[in-house]
Amino acid sequence: MTSILISFLLLTQTILPAVVQQPEPVRIAVAGLTHGHVNWVFADNITNDIEVVGYYEPNRELWERFKNRFGLDESLHFTDLDEMLDQTRPEAVTAFGSTFDHLMVTEAAAPRGIHIMVEKPLAVNLDHAGRMKELADRHRVHLITNYETTWYASNHAAYELFTNGNNFGDIRKVVVHDGHFGPKEIGVSNEFLEWLIDPVLNGGGALMDFGCYGANLITWLMHGQEPLTVTAVTQTHKPHIYGEVDDEATIIVTYPGVQGVIQASWNWPYHRKDMHVYGESGFVYAQNHNTIQVLENHRQPPASQIILDPLKYPFNDPFSYFAAVVRGNVKVLDTDLSSLVNNITVMKILDAARESARTGTTIYLNRE
């Protein structure tokens, strides 16, 4: 095994500092139950760092399904968001409704001094995102965005190897693949599908649903730098299902000396969230949440494969992380994956990608 891999194996034990578990759980309200990722709240391994004090969901039938499935207390249910926030007085709220509703949740929570975590992407468009940022800044609350891939040890390993390694050279190309064979095809709930394929409530189709992952990761790898140009092509291969939105999107972002390719699809023949990072003399392939392949010093394949340990608490779970942020035990840097600054840039990329696809032109964000 090469010296850089030996050093890397030591490095992976200290990528992120450990934080002591919170002494008191953070009181959290859940705004919406339609997003499929809300099931994370009810996972068997849910952190003890949070206490859910209320659920806002106007769809009574949907609430009944969750209540019966997870044995929830009826007194925790609210059909009015403001009423829930005033009665339960949470320290933080996490949004699991449509992306369009993220602005509504922020408008309700921020003036009350309640911290906010939304599911990816931050907003349906840059206008919503800007209004959300203004509210968060004015009322001095945290507003972070949760991506599944933020908690992948493989992505952090790729970042660290290119940040601290010396056998790869500068990044030249990043290719990110995300998606599956379609939300309807994988069996998402009707309530989720209804807004996921709505061009207003989701802002688009696969471009928004999965293009945001690549935009988020590439912005992070570029240490927050905005791209010079954005070029995108979208298609709808299954108009009988996704007639109003795209189900296939490719986005190319350029930086001085670097190109990023984001492939977002509801047409993959399998589930995937993986990333290739190519340097001048080597590459790192983040194959899945805990596996990377590494090739360095212009060597020929096969690459060395490494199975990684999970990230350290509280960086291994969105709720542990959110609780640590609320408690002040973790500082969110502007360049972090969850940060508002990163995700404003993500929205600039996604807005430009939609415009590029619509007009068939390259969109210039920053001219040298």
Would you mind describing this structure in some detail?
The chain has helices spanning 3-11, 60-70, 81-88, 101-109, 126-139, 153-164, 183-186, 190-196, 206-209, 211-221, 318-327, 340-359; strands at residues 26-31, 50-56, 77-78, 92-95, 115-119, 143-146, 171-179, 229-235, 248-255, 258-265, 272-279, 283-286, 291-295, 304-307, 363-364. The chain folds into 2 domains: 10-148, Rossmann fold; 153-311 and 334-364, Dihydrodipicolinate Reductase, domain 2 (2-Layer Sandwich). It starts with a helix and ends with a strand. It is built from 12 helices and 15 strands. It has 368 residues and is an alpha/beta fold.
Distance between the termini: 42 Å
Radius of gyration of CA atoms, rounded to a whole number: 20 Å
CATH class of the largest domain: Alpha Beta
**What is the strand arrangement across the widest sheet?**
14-13-12-11-7-10-9-8-15
Helix content range: 25-40%
Tally of strands: 15
Question: How can the largest sheet be summarized?
Answer: 9 strands, mixed
The shape is globular
Alpha-beta classification: alpha/beta
Q: Number of helix segments?
A: 12
In CATH, the topology of the largest domain is named: Dihydrodipicolinate Reductase, domain 2
> What is the H/E string?
HEEHEHEHEHEHEHHHHEEEEEEEHHE
Relevant CATH superfamily of the largest domain: Dihydrodipicolinate Reductase, domain 2
Unreliable spans: 9-14
How many discrete domains?
A: 2
Tell me the strand percentage band.
15-25%
